[in-house]
Amino acid sequence: MFLYLSSPHCQQHSNGWGHPENAQRVVQIGQALSEADLLNNALQKTIQPTTEEDVLRVHSPTFWETLKKHLPESGFVKIDDDTSLSPGSLESALTASGAVLTAVDAIMNQEANQAFCNIRPPGHHAERNRPMGFCLINHIAIGAAYALEKYSLERIAIVDFDVHHGNGTEDYVAREHRVAYVSSFEENIFPFTNPVSDLNNMLKLPLKSHSDGHAFLKAWHDSGFDFVRQFKPQLIFISAGFDAHKQDPLANLNLTEQDFYNWTQQLMQLAHEVCEGKVISVLEGGYDLKALAESATAHVKALQAL
């Protein structure tokens, strides 16, 4: 059974007029998946917003209190040049994290095998003490911490193909050895990460500017997938950012929707090998609406294929 999770509450966060991270991202994906008949037989559930207790497994109390303190009653508050708070921002963020926790419960209770969380704002740049890069709280880290505690899991893997490295997720796994993290990303762009990791539970796969799908898949074939295999996770999360697409305005890789399909198909083969296919995919980046919708559709097709 495939689980699809999304909510109108995820549309309430706004970064301001003309910002690439906007509500149309989740709307366009939902429409594309529906038009492709990928939701006809999908399990769908009501999302309960995540609790403060869940957030504080990953983020510091000072971080969380600061977000709440600066939430405006109207208009916008700029966190940095890229990231804002609007009146509906925290409801959107808590609903987004809630979708991930709902997916964890469904999969661990054998109601579903795979899940796709069509949510926003994204999360993988949010560090323990710092929201940044369009991200307020780190949904995948919150989901992993929840799964570790509630279901007593010993090993979880997070795989991330967003064109921007998930520095927030790196910040989390540096403190949590039960979670492995593999991240492919374009080098020398935001968040300007060190291309080499000294963490035993993390592998970075930097890609040169203008790399295509062949280079992307080769990096994962050469070391990324095997790193996951050797960790033997009981559950796999995907940070599914589609901004490595050749049409995306915020980066310089040249992937196509077929590359996302191929990667996902191979990840699913690995997941069936190591963790009975238990996979939760969570939307991160992707800012060309047409490319985003087509790439997410290809990704979900591959999630459902086995």
Describe this protein's structure:
The protein has 306 residues and is α/β, with parallel strands linked by helices. The protein has one domain: Arginase, Chain A. Helix content is 39%, strand content 14%. The protein has 9 helices and 10 strands. The strands form 2 sheets. An 8-stranded parallel β-sheet has the order 2-1-5-10-9-6-7-8, sandwiched between helices. Strands 3-4 form a two-stranded antiparallel sheet. Strand 3 and strand 4 (84-85) form a beta hairpin. Helix 1 crosses helix 9, helix 7 (213-231) runs parallel beside helix 8 and helix 8 runs parallel beside helix 9. The termini are close together. The relative contact order is 0.15.
Please specify the SSE layout and strand pairing.
Layout: E1 2-5, H1 24-35, E2 43-44, H2 52-55, H3 61-70, E3 77-78, E4 84-85, H4 89-108, E5 114-117, H5 139-150, E6 156-160, H6 167-173, E7 179-186, E8 202-207, H7 213-231, E9 235-240, H8 257-275, E10 279-283, H9 289-304
Parallel strand pairs: 1-2, 1-5, 5-10, 6-7, 6-9, 7-8, 9-10
Antiparallel strand pairs: 3-4
Helix pairs in contact: 1-9, 4-5, 7-8, 8-9
